[in-house]
Amino acid sequence: MNMAPIDWAIVASLLIVLTVGAISAKRYTKSVSGFLAAERCGGRYLISVAMGMAMMGVISLVWLFEQNYDVGFTSVWWSLMEGPVLIIMAITGWAYYRFRQTRALTLAQFFEIRYSKKFRVFAGIVAFAAGLINFGIFPSVGARFFIWLCGIPEQFDVLGMTISAFPAVMLVLIGISLVFTFLGGQIAVMITDFLQGTWAYIVFAIVCAYLLYTFRWDQISDTLLSAPAGKSLIDPFDLGREKNFDKWYYVIGVIVAFYVPLAWQGTAGYYSCAKNAHETKMGMMLSHWRFRVLMMILVLVLPICVRTYLTHPDFADQASVVHNRINSINTENLEVDNERIDESYVESLRNQARTPMAIGALLPPVVLGLMVAAMLGAFISTHDSYLHSWGSMLIQDIVMPFKKTPLGPKEHIWWLRGAIFAVAVYIFLFSLFFKHTQHIAMYCAISASVFTAGAGTVIIGGLYWSKGTTAAAWASMIIGMVTSLVGMVIKQFINPDFFLTGQEITFCAIVISVSVYVAVSLIGRKKAFNMDRMLHRGKYKIKGEESVSLHDAKTVWQKLGFTREFTKRDTVIALVTLAWPLVWFIIFIVGNIIQKTNEGGISKNAWLSFWQIWTWLILSMSVVLTVWFTIGGFMDMRYMYRKLKTQQADEADDGRVVGGRNLDETADAIRPDSAPQACDNDDVSKKRKSV
C-alpha cells in the first residue's frame, strides 16, 4: 500500500466537502429543467471549470499519459495548428451559442424542433447506444488506475471473505458518483464538478512543480534524446515511425474539433445550463484555457518525468520495483481465453499501469494524498456528468416521446433517477467483463464516432443551414453510424492491425456523412426552415433570452464577432483568450518555415531549449489562471444560489415539443404566467461584478 494515513485523511476531507456541496443543491431541484439544466442559471466561470473537469476525467488523463509517454512534447507542436479553428469557434460561439438559443434541454429535443419527432427518437437511441459503448470502459480504467496508484492489493479479506479489489473499487467509485447525481441533478453535478476542478488545478500545479524539482532538466533531456529515430519525443518532424500518434492524428483532430461541438453528449447538461446564449459563448471561450494550459502541464510533465524515472540510469534501482510490478501483469494471472486478445489486452493494461505505478512510488506522503484526491475528483466529475447525461437521454429522448400522459415534476425526476441508476449498473457490468485491446484514445474515438460522425453534420446543418432537410438528417446519421460500426468491429474483433487507425476511420465517416447530408438536402428541400423561430430571434424573442445575430452587426468590430452583448470587460477577456492560440499558431508557422528552409532543420538542442521554456511558461500561467477562475467560479456559484432561491420553476419546461416548438413557449402550456421564465437577462448580467 502506497498511501499513508495522512493521505487517506486528505482524500476523506475532499469527499466531505463534495458531499456538503451536493446536499446543498438538493433543495433547489424542484423541476425537470432544474434537474436537467440547473434552471439555466450557470455563469461562465462555473461552467468552464466544472465542464472542463467533467471532460477531463481519469480515463482522459490515462489516455493522454499513454499518448505522451510515447510521443512526448511533439503532441504539443502539432496541436498548435488548431489556433485559427479555436479562435473562430470561440468568437462565434460555434454551435453552442445557437443551441442555447433554441432553449432545448437535450440535443435530441433540438432534433425534434429542427427535423422531426421520429428523428429525435432515432438519434436518441443511436447516441445512447454509442454512449454506453464508450462509457462502458470508464469504470474499469479508473478503478485499475487507483489500484495501481494507491498500491491496493489485488485481493483483501473482509469478515473472513476474500474480496477482489477490482470490482470492489469500481463499485465504490460508481456509488459515490451516483449519490451526487441523485441528490441534485445538474445543480449538484455542476457544484461538485467545480469544487473538484478547483482542487485538481491547484494540485496539478503542485505535483508538476515537485516533479520538475525532483528531476533535473539534464536528466529529462537525456531521456528525451534517447528515443529512436522516427519516434522523437522533442522533434515533431521526426515521427516517421510513430504509427498511432503521427502528425495526421493531430490534423484530423483539428477537423474533428470543429465538427463535433455538441455532438458528444457526455456533458450534455452543461450545454443548456447557462443563463443565456452569450454566457454560453463566454463559458466555452474560457474553457479553451483548460486544455491549452491547466490540463496540458500535467499530461506532459507527468508522463515525461515517469519515462525519465523508468528509463534513466540514475533511477535504475528505484525503477526496478515498478518494472517488476508492471511485468507482473501477464496472461497467467488475467485468466483470459483467446491468445491473440490476451497479448493485446495485457499490453494495453501495462501501458495504462505504467504511469500510476510510477507516480505511486515517486510521490511522498501528503503530495500523494493530494494527487489521489485530485484524481478521485476527476473520476467523480466525469462519471456523475456522464450518468446524468445518458440517463437523461434515455428518459427524455427515447421513453417520453412515446408517453401520451405527461408526468408531474416529482415523478418525472424519479424516472430520470431510475434511468441514471440503470446506466450505473450497466457500466459496472460492462467494465467487469469487457476487455478492450486498443489504445484508450483510439477506442474512445471510434466508439464515439458511431454517433458523432453523423451527428456533427446534422447539428451544424440544423443550426446554420436553413435548407437542411429531415431526409438528409436520416441519411447522414445512418451512413455515419454504419461506417463507424464497421470500423469498430474490424479494429476490435477482426484485425486490430487494420491499416486505418481509429482516428482515420472517424475522419472517413465524417467525410461521407457531410457529403450525403449536402447532396440529399439540395435534392429535397424547396422551402427554407424558419430559423428565427427556432433561435428565438426577431418577433420570436423571449424576455430574458435576448441574443444577437451577426447579420445584425453594424460595425467592423461587431462583424468580427464582438457583438453588442460584449461589455468592455468581456471584450478584454475575449482578446486575451484569443491572443493565446494566435501567438502559438504564429510560432507554429515560423517553426515550420525554419524547419523547411534551414539545412538539417531545427537542432535537437534548440528543441530542448524551446520545450524547457514552454514548460515553465505553461506552469506559471496555470497558477495565474487557477486563481482567476477560482475567484470567478465562486462568484458565479454564489449568484446561482441566490437566483435559485427566488426562481419560479416552469413545469411545462420539461423537454416536450409541440408543433416544432418547446411546450413552454406554446399556448398548450398551462401555467400562472404564460411567458417562459428566464433565470437572468443581459442587464442583470452586465451589472454583476465579474472577474
UniProtKB/TrEMBL annotation:
Membrane topology recorded in Swiss-Prot or TrEMBL: Multi-pass membrane protein
CC per GO annotation: plasma membrane
Matches recorded under InterPro entries: Na/Glc_symporter_sf, Na/solute_symporter, Sodium:Solute_Symporter
Keywords: Cell membrane, Ion transport, Membrane, Sodium, Sodium transport, Symport, Transmembrane, Transmembrane helix, Transport
Subcellular location: Cell membrane
Primary location: membrane
Molecular function GO terms recorded: symporter activity
Region (Disordered): 666-691
Membrane-traversing stretches: 6-25, 45-65, 77-99, 119-138, 158-182, 194-213, 248-271, 291-310, 357-380, 414-434, 440-465, 472-494, 500-524, 572-594, 614-635
Any GO BP annotation: sodium ion transport
Alphabetical list of PANTHER family matching this protein: SODIUM/PROLINE SYMPORTER-RELATED, SODIUM_PROLINE SYMPORTER
Family, per entry: Belongs to the sodium:solute symporter (SSF) (TC 2.A.21) family.
Protein name: Putative transporter
Native organism taxonomy: Bacteria, Pseudomonadati, Planctomycetota, Phycisphaerae, Sedimentisphaerales
